[in-house]
Amino acid sequence: MTVREMTRADVEAVCRIERECFSMPWSAADFLEMIEADYAHYYVAQEAGQIVGCCGIRNLAGEGEITNVAVAPGARRQGIGRKMMEHLLQEASVHKIEACTLEVRISNIPAIRLYESLGFRGEGVRPRFYEKPQEDALIMWKR
Questions:
Q1: For the segment 16-45, what is each residue's pLDDT rounded down to a tens digit?
Q2: Are 55 and 85 in contact (CB under 8 A)?
Q3: Per DSSP, what are the bridge partners of residue 142?
Q4: Which DSSP string corresponds to the chain?
Q5: Tell me: the pLDDT tens digits for 37-46?
Q6: Which residues of the chain, if any, have pLDDT below 70?
Q7: With CB atoms counted within 10 Å of each terminal CB, which end of the chain scores lower, N or C?
């Protein structure tokens, strides 16, 4: 399994994973905008020629907003999410991003445990942040 920068050719596969993972997935236009933006860095995990995960980070004045961490349901529990996040955090450092934040559904215990194992800590809650179903978001930071 490799983690590499997302390209335009990956967007269709990434959108399919988004639809499988999220109730309000990003569109192809959203991803195309991000991979062309100079302040954003998006990555895919590829295994046996197939895209199995994606993640991204936006550099907002030296702080990183992590978005779209997703692993295809059939590829979960194989360490793909961890490898993508480790790659993303290493790249954040290269781009002089000193602190990173993300939001995660309060009920997504496996993701929260992964983020905690990578040094993130919960610092707040955004009430009713998510829709379909409505749920609070845990705000996590790695400083």
A1: 999 999 999 999 999 999 999 999 999 999
A2: yes
A3: 100
A4: -EEEE--GGGHHHHHHHHHHH-SSPPPHHHHHHHHH-TTEEEEEEEETTEEEEEEEEEEETTEEEEEEEEE-GGG-SSSHHHHHHHHHHHHHHHTT--EEEEEEETT-HHHHHHHHHTT-EEEEEEEEEETTTTEEEEEEEE-
A5: 999 999 999 9
A6: none
A7: C
Catalytic residues: 103, 115
The two structure tokens encoding residue 25: 């997935």
Distance in angstroms (rounded) separating the CA atoms of residues 37 and 85: 20
Cα separation, 71 vs 74, in Å, equals 8
CA–CA dist 53, 114 (Å, integer): 15
How far is C-alpha 43 from the geometric centre of its chain's CA atoms?
9
Q: How far apart are CA 121 and CA 105, in angstroms?
A: 14
Residue 16: predicted pLDDT = 97
